[in-house]
Specification:
About 5% of the residues are buried. The longest helix is centred in the middle third of the chain and has 20 residues. It is built from three helices and five strands; from the N terminus they run E-E-E-E-H-E-H-H. With about 90 residues, it is α+β, with helices and mostly antiparallel strands. It is elongated.
């Protein structure tokens, strides 16, 4: 399995960055060239245990609750204290 890094057309299908590309789609002799030119990157299989998946689900649920309740930061990190006191970076 590979991850598309740059827009890539294989046959009549266009892959965009972030798309998954199956091994069966790529010609074996083209894979090294596509990897070297950074059009694709190899995805290594990860074995997940049910415990680690449960932990991940819990973190996602917590982040979602924080976002919905407004507890997470919404202003950009680059905003200075003066800008925060003045209500943003209005000009």
């Amino acid at each position: 399995m590979y991850l598309c890094e740059k827009r890539l057309q294989i046959g009549s299908v266009i892959y965009y960055p972030g798309d998954y590309i199956s091994d069966a789609v790529l010609l074996p002799q083209r894979i090294p060239k596509l990897l070297k030119s950074q059009y694709i990157s190899e995805i290594r299989e990860m074995v997940q245990t049910s415990e680690s998946l449960h932990t991940l689900e819990g973190r996602i649920a917590e982040d979602l609750q924080k976002t919905m309740s407004g507890k997470q930061r919404t202003e950009p990190k680059s905003m200075t204290k003066v800008q925060k006191l003045k209500g943003g970076d209005r000009k």
